[in-house]
Automatic annotation (TrEMBL):
Transmembrane segments: none annotated. It comes from Leptonema illini. Pfam families: AAA_31 (PF13614). PANTHER family: P-LOOP CONTAINING NUCLEOSIDE TRIPHOSPHATE HYDROLASE, PARA FAMILY PROTEIN CT_582. This is ParA family protein. Gene3D superfamilies: P-loop containing nucleotide triphosphate hydrolases (3.40.50.300). Residues 14-185 form the AAA domain. SUPFAM superfamilies: P-loop containing nucleoside triphosphate hydrolases.
Length: 260
């Protein structure tokens, strides 16, 4: 991984990686953004708020974890108690496991939207907290938006990706209006992009009608899928791949937007 010179950030950033549609690249973006930030020297926490635990599975075996974010939501453990280290320097993980899904079925209490926001107050040592959200408007997505300073929306340049944009924008605006007035949309990140196709050229301007779009996009390619199978981030699996270079450039662009 090409190292960028570390620059101290002005504040701590909590970034929700979210899209109510599945298959848009949320988990891939959460993993590789976290690793890129850590590689730049920023102390980073990846919080896996998806009961599918795909982010967690890159760094640990969720089935073997005694503690996870389930314990934070159920009030049986603190966030500090469930955080585990990873093989990536400067990167820690707040893992998920399938039991997290039981939280929603157990019923929602009045404090439910604030669990993650309150938990993050106990870990001021992190420069960045990246939240991988489930592909639904669940209590976990709401928690992420309540806790977040910024939102990144991974999206493919295809028609079905556009269909959920209105609902996502309305959800973000509702959280901003009612609970988290400081919440900001950092932008949409186009993923699995097939450059120079008619569809891409047609859809990109439509997405920009909903959200600002990052200049950097992530190309379609086999390296991403192969890295998942190998349980590696893209920088460890294929550091010279186009996607590794694009995720690093995206991270640099994001920091520039946040610090502007």
């Amino acid at each position: 991984m090409r190292q960028s010179a570390r620059t101290d950030v002005k504040k701590r950033y909590c970034i929700a990686i979210t899209n109510q549609k599945g298959g848009e690249g949320k988990t891939t973006t959460a993993i590789n953004l976290s690793c890129a930030l850590a590689g730049m020297g920023h102390k980073t926490l990846l919080a896996d708020l998806d009961p599918q635990a795909n982010s967690s599975g890159i760094f640990a075996n969720p089935d073997r974890l005694e503690l996870s974010l389930y314990n934070v939501f159920s009030g049986t453990s603190t966030l500090k108690e469930i955080i585990v280290g990873t093989e990536v320097e400067n990167l820690d993980l707040a893992p998920s496991k399938i039991t997290l899904a039981e939280i929603e079925s157990a019923g929602v209490n009045v404090d439910a939207p604030y669990v993650i926001r309150d938990a993050f107050q106990s870990v001021p040592e992190y420069d960045f907290i990246i939240m991988d959200c489930p592909p639904s408007l669940s209590i976990f997505t709401i928690n992420a938006l309540v806790a977040a300073t910024h939102v990144v929306i991974p999206a493919q340049a295809e028609k079905f990706s556009i269909d959920g944009m209105t609902g996502l924008r309305n959800t973000i605006n509702s959280i901003k209006r009612r609970i988290n007035p400081d919440l900001a949309i950092a932008g949409a990140l186009l993923t699995q992009l097939k450059p120079n196709t008619v569809l891409s050229k047609t859809i990109m301007p439509v997405i920009s009608d909903f959200f600002p779009v990052f200049k950097t996009s992530i190309s379609e390619g086999v390296a991403i899928g192969e890295s998942h199978l190998a349980r590696k981030n893209i920088f460890m699996y294929a550091p010279e791949s186009r996607q590794a270079k694009e995720y690093l450039t995206f991270t640099e662009e994001l920091i520039g937007e946040l610090e502007a």
